Amino acid sequence: MITKMKKLTFLVYHKEYEDFLEGIRELGVVHIVEKQRGEMDSELQSFVQKRIRYKSMLGEMYTQAEKQPDEDVHSEMSEEGLLETYTGLQSEWQELNQQLPALDKEIAQMENWGDFDWKSVQRLKDAGWNIQFYMCPEKDYKEEWEDEYSIIPVQTKSKHVFFVVVANQSVDLGIEPVRMSSKSLSELIGAKEEIKADIERVENELKLFCRKYYRTMELYNLRLQSDIDLKKVKLNSEQMVLGAVVLLEGWIPEENVSDMVKWLDNRNVYYEMRTANKDDNAPIKLKNNAFTRMYEVLTKMYGMPDYGEFDPTPLVAPFFTLFFAFCMGDAGYGLALIALGFFLKKKLSKSLRGMMNLVITLGIATTVFGAILGTFFGVGLFDLEIPAELKQFMIVGKVGDTSYDKQMLLALLIGVVHICIAMTVKAINSTVRYGFKESLSAWGWLVLVVGFIATGGLSFFKLISEDVSTWAFIIIGSVASIGIYLLNNVRRNIFLNIGAGIWDTYNMATGLMGDILSYIRLYALGLAGAMLGGVFNQLAFMVQDSAGGIPGWLFCGLILIFGHSLNIAMSCLSAFVHPLRLTFVEYFKNSGYDGKGEPYKPFSMIKNK
């Protein structure tokens, strides 16, 4: 549900304004109303740019720490010292890495000439000998050079000749001599090893530094955000009475009103408070029970509701759980998710442990629903020798003598119920926000769809006669048509209403059927996962039969572990994405959910951990 909000308007004497802001920041419950003030001032721009750098640096530090920063905050290093040390280590690492390509190039060149001592070459030069190193294509090499000069061939490689000319005078072969490195091959290789060792040392220093000071940097980033928030609040303040009085507006949850009023009564501040109405752009704070709260992250992924809307999370939670379990469709995979959730809950950081409660919940639902669908690690439970009392709870096989699969029809039935609930939510929400007269079209479509489905179901199961169902269709269609075609907008001309109703009919006829058919993906994904699990089982035991003995069982176990692990990973991905699509597209569209609300972000102070 959405927490009720109160609108607060403050009038503060300008000399007391700084202390007032510090006070409400310590309370940490007031969401300040942001007003359009044009461009940011230079100080705020510098803060924002600095925070961008901090966020980028945090991302780099998290990677350098191998996603395992220390939990404790080591705040003994100052912000400037932390930045200077990290920048120095990064610069050293980059400089060392930049030296490697040049060294590799020199090493590749010197490998063509071999490892020789440059001191010996220098002694020959000091004795008056002219020594030049040459390289040319084989076709350009002239044998008469050997008659004219003292040539020492080194090697022929890649159709190129490498040779050295030793003479007591200048030599002109018509080709440029090779520019050689000033170090020998062994010296270059040694220099490269030293640089690699330095790189490893700096990387280890960076890793240790990032693990130790990541939380400190995180704290400095939060403090910077706090300074940005304070600056924004000051910019959103309005000067009145020639600057003597400052006006500030904000929102506060009803549950915090008493503490806020008590605090304000002890200060020389004039304020007004009123209850938010459905037309206010009040910030949204969700308040749900422990089960539903786990699914708030899904609602926030799409967007928070408007203040006049309903919180969709209480309905998203059970249906997303059902969809996920249907897509997984395997009781064994559900047990694996439960075990994984409990394991990671002990290993992950505090911020991520809460997500494991969701994983465990989805695992429990998958276990139960997988048993109903009759699959356990790719094995069909219905075909095993288990008590008949348990088999009667399983939804497997075809419906009677027809070719319709029970699980496919179950998926479609879930889709019909989900869409009908969405249309009900839309009608009720529209009535609450705009009044009953403005919601007649939504109620008309709800009566038509739900009424036709209910009448058709009763007629199909022979609970009502054909005559009764015929008259029911006529009455329901007539009543619904009034809202759909005549009263869809009471302020508009009736002929325009009829035209708009026809257009809505076209959209509903084409869209509604497609929306319901989209739910077949629940059946298809569950079936695909079960079939793939069965294939891995067959493959594993075929290998066991072929190999036999201990090697056979060893390979069988490896195939089962690898195959089912891969299948669980792919099934989890599908079971998250596709239920999310059914929620965001089919449900939200038919429920009229916009998701354009502003999240509740109280102006608060960042405290040291």
Summarize the structure.
The protein has 609 residues and is of the alpha+beta class.
Q: Flag low-confidence runs.
A: none
Distance between the termini: 31 Å
> Which term fits the overall shape?
extended
Rg over CA atoms? 37 Å
Measured as a percent range, the helix fraction is: 55-70%
Strand residue content: 5-15%
The description of the largest β-sheet is:
5 strands, antiparallel
- Extended strand count: 10
Count of DSSP H/I helices: 19
Succession of helices and strands: EHEHHHEHEEHEEHEHHHHHEEHHHHHHH
Mean pLDDT: 85
Q: From the helix content, strand content and strand pairing, which structural class follows? A: alpha+beta
Helix-strand layout with pairing:
Layout lengths: L4 E9 L3 H11 L3 E2 L9 H23 L14 H32 L7 H9 L3 E8 L6 H5 L1 E8 L2 E8 L17 H51 L2 E3 L4 E9 L3 H9 L4 E6 L14 H4 L2 H7 L10 H16 L2 H17 L2 H24 L1 E2 L2 E2 L7 H4 L14 H29 L5 H21 L5 H21 L7 H24 L2 H28 L1 H43 L18
Antiparallel strand pairs: 1-7, 1-8, 2-7, 3-5, 4-5, 6-7, 9-10
Helix pairs in contact: 2-6, 3-6, 10-12, 10-18, 10-19, 11-12, 14-15, 14-17, 14-18, 14-19, 15-16, 18-19
